[in-house]
Amino acid sequence: MKLKLVTAILSGLFIIAAGSLLVLQNDKNQEALTKKYFETQLQNAVDQTASSISMMISGDMDKLRLIAGFLSEEGKDSWKKGKLKETLNKLAPDLQFTAVNVCDKDGWAIDLWDKTQTVSFCPYYQRALLGDTTVSITKLYEEDLEPSLVYTMPITQGKEITGVIRMAFDPETIRKQMIQSVFRGKEESYLLKRDSSILITVDHYVSPEGNFLEKLAAEEDTLKNIDQVIRQGRSITAEAYINNEKNYICFKGIKESNDWGIVITIPAKQLEILFKAENSSTQNIYNFVILFIMILLVCFLAVFCIKEVAGKQRMEYLAFYDRNTGSINYNRFKIDAAALLHKSSGANYALVLSAIDRYDYIRELLGAQECRSLLKSISKKLAALLNEDEIYCCYNSTSFALLLKYHNKEELTDRIGYINAKLCSFNDTEIKNDKFELRMHFGIYCVREGENDIDLFVDRAGQALNLIKGDRRQIIEYYSNEMKNRIINETEIEERMFTALEEKEFLVYLQPKFDLNTGYQVGAEALVRWMHPEKGMIYPGHFLGVFEKNGFIVRMDMYMLDIMCHWLKIWMSKGYRPLPLSLNISRLNLFDENFVSNMISTLERYGVPPNLINLEISEEVVTDNIEILTALMARLKKYGFLISMDDFGAGTASMNTLYHVPVDELKLERKFLLGAEKTDRGKKVIGSIIEMAKRLNIKVVSEGVENKAQAKMLKELGCDMIQGFVFSEPLPIKEYEKFTYGPGAKENKIW
User: Fold this and answer.
1) What does CATH list as the number for 487-741?
2) Largest Cα–Cα distance of the chain, in whole Å?
3) Where are the domains of the chain?
């Protein structure tokens, strides 16, 4: 027995000695590994803090955007005399703000109690007047004793900024996001501005004095590029000396605010202590009573750890998952996409950015809750449509990013077309929709071998997507090197357009319209040309699309109307009997609340009768917004304007639609004429449209007539008017004047 005991003791001592030698042998390696572990923990702590702040800001911004949109729709009267308080109680009853005000463009603000004060002193108010949305730590009013967390957002009507909404919150909400326990409370957290000045610390949560860079030793310049890091939303980790003590520092910019970043520091001495604590081995076993106590403690710690894990999982969900759809967000997408590309080296992948067309309009129709259901439905469909070696994420509130595997572009194009059809269908969803047609657009970047910059892929796919946004006919666009030139060209157009308008570089051309029965001219359509001082004549196909996207088309329409009225007045003063002129009206003008009044004001300024102006509205715009535009067209007709539906046949309009829409003319899309005079089928299609239009007392105009055979066919089918190059191309105004009112004008007959 004694021998066994001695043997057991010796065996135990041998095991302890061997274990000690192994511990000593691996001590240095373990130290390096542990140091790397704590650096990783520091990075994760910064990422989680930055993500939490970003998500908080994003959520508050979404609510504020909803409020701003409502105030924009209701107009300035909704801001005053108790209306503001009523609006906020209805739209955001759970938004825990401390104060709020709405400011006009003169710098006067009104709050919930109808108190008015000037806020013109505030730089963030000035930035909002320029179109910026900001979040800042500042005073809401100049006389405030303490600063607040203030969101500032412009209120717009159309493209015009009519006011600014400012909402204040307790900065304590940000400080709570900064509290960490990763390093047992030994770390320090700071919220910085771009200039490295300290906004918030865990101990002094509002506007403590000091600059973070001033805390660093003079020879340390690792963190001197904080400004760039903030703007780019990147993170950096470095070693630096603070108060002559070595520290590990991790910094990350907060994307939702291009002016803020989060910094966490921990002394190297504390990491050494934590290292020893992590690696200390419990060699002494005291007795069975203590062991029993330890078991109880382990059980307690197990429960505690489970809760801690659950908390970390919650933080991970907030950092890497989208709240509306439940899918991964862009932060996680970048990590997974990089890993997938590395794993599938040699395979062809494409980064696809997909956006919902007219999302703001859809949100107004459905409401916020139904819109969230729509996004969840799209996300669920994407999950079912993707293969195992493909991923997607909710990129933002209106778009999704996909990483798709493909063999060739033809196959990829067909597949995206199939995906689009599935996403835009409501057959397999619980959403009931009879108000709008869901459309999506897809920008595609084909990843090249060896590339792994996910941000670059998304940026290029986004460039392709932006080129087709709002285009009803094209839903897919690939990024190409030639696209750079298109983007450069668009930039040049935008930089020159205001100057061109002031210097009257835009010229109005008029293309005559002829009556098929009499053969005489009965009107003309106004078309625009750009006489560029360097590039010469530029046709509308090269610049009107850019104007539609950036909103400049609104000013262009009114510019052309002004010129048309100017010449109509001249012709009336000369004793001519002026013929009606047609003007194409953009969708943006139709939804401008000042559109009708601006039109009437222009006509009254020149003394031009409204029946000399024929407003052409595209079929696409009418069918997508039939209820709104029917009321608008009724107002225009009541005043005396003529209304035409342009490009009939290009979209989905039906004769039933025409029954409800008060139009005077129907302009056939030129595709109907392509070879129609040579086939009975083509003639029957055109004839049926003309017959139905006449029953509704609507005149029919056919544009794009290229030969007399087409003109003869249209006359036989009962078409009322035509225009096309076969009889007259678009003419400069003075040439049009000579053509229409000159000595030989009566001879300008088509028969």
Assistant:
1) 3.20.20.450
2) 137
3) 10-283, 288-319, 330-479, 487-741
